[in-house]
Amino acid sequence: MDFHASLCPPPSVMGVNRNISIWEGNFLEKFTLSGDYIELNKLLKASGLCDTGGIAKFAIKNGRVAVDGEVEYRKGCKIRHGQKVEFDSHVIEVN
């Protein structure tokens, strides 16, 4: 599977509030948590930026994802309210 094919999010993902705008030249998406946290790889999949968990894990392992401006290599990193996740030209703001 082509890694870059998963970069454009689908128009809607069931159960996810897709609020996308442009911020500093990147796509800014607001993601609303239903609990205290979500694991990084699950966030990338739930937001629609990665088609599968395997693609999300690959992206994280290869340093293509940043959390609050720092490259993150842990797929199970807990993402909480107020954090920003960057993946290529997309920024996910977690609320």
Task: Describe it.
The structure is a single chain. This protein has 95 residues and is an alpha+beta fold. The protein has a domain at 36-95: RNA-binding S4 domain (Structural Genomics Hypothetical 15.5 Kd Protein In mrcA-pckA Intergenic Region, Chain A), CATH 3.10.290. Helices cover 17% and strands 33% of the residues. It is built from two helices and eight strands. Strands 1-2-8-7-4-5 form a six-stranded mixed sheet, with no helix packed on it. A hairpin with a 2-residue loop joins strand 1 (19-23) and strand 2. Helix 1 packs across helix 2. The radius of gyration is 12 Å and the shape is globular. Residues 1-17 have low confidence and may be disordered.
CATH homologous group name of the domain at 36-95: RNA-binding S4 domain
The rough form would be described as globular
CATH topology of the domain at 36-95: Structural Genomics Hypothetical 15.5 Kd Protein In mrcA-pckA Intergenic Region, Chain A
Helix/strand order, N-terminal first: EEEHHEEEEE
- Average of the residue pLDDT scores: 81
Q: How many H/I helices?
A: 2
Which ranges are low-confidence, i.e. pLDDT below 50, for 5 or more consecutive residues?
Answer: 1-17
- Strand segment count: 8
Distance between the termini: 31 Å
How can the largest sheet be summarized? 6 strands, mixed
- The radius of gyration over CA amounts to 12 Å
Task: Enumerate the strands of the largest sheet in spatial order, edge to edge or round the barrel.
Answer: 1-2-8-7-4-5
- Share of residues in helices: 10-25%
**Strand-residue proportion:** 25-35%
Q: Name the CATH architecture of the domain at 36-95.
A: Roll
Top-tier CATH class of the domain at 36-95 = Alpha Beta
Query: Structural class, from helix and strand content?
Result: alpha+beta
